[in-house]
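Hi support team,

I submitted a single chain yesterday and got back a structure, but I'm not sure I'm reading the token output correctly. Could someone confirm the output below corresponds to the sequence I sent? I've pasted both exactly as they appear in my results page.

Thanks,
R.
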Amino acid sequence: MRKRHALVAAAVAAAVPVALAVPAQSHGYISDPPSRSALCAAGTVTDCGQIQWEPQSVEGPKGFPESGPADGTLCSGGNARFAELDDSRGGDWPTTHVTAGQQLTFTWTFTARHATTSFRYFLTNPGYDASQPLTRDSLDTTPFLSVPYGGAQPPGTVSHTATLPAGRTGHQVVLAVWDIADTGNAFYSCTDVDF
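Hi R., thanks for writing in. Yes, this is the structure output for that exact sequence:
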């Protein structure tokens, strides 16, 4: 009997770390152009914490810009486990080179699909300082692209093409928000671009 209890205890002890390492839920992120989450998952950027294993899990309260994550926590969706995404790294996140008026396609990769209200894309204001945390004041809170989804589930990947606004130079940030239809949450993804 003692042997049996010891085996059960050993099995439980071995299973706990494995259970904790597997994300409770999986969802989606912008894979191209690479978001901060994608850069961390690929190892392009290091010292990323847990997001390197869970690029799809940047979930936070929906309602942006009126509510949602607090200023300074927008890239992590207000999720403290992924605070490394909010670190401006002194403006040193890798960027994708773009030009004003260019068509740019954003591709989301999903590991779990959800009923979707919309996808929305916001861009930082002219004069944005990439060495500072992302706030509502640093963003144009009118999306430059909105894609309504009417409660449908997206496929395993989905792409949206937008015309990038004029009047930007240097390092800017695109904040993408995937609003879920049947929960109080949304997914947040930050992509650094250089005009």
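A quick pointer for reading it: The first helix runs from residue 2 to 21. Let us know if anything else looks off.

Best,
Support desk
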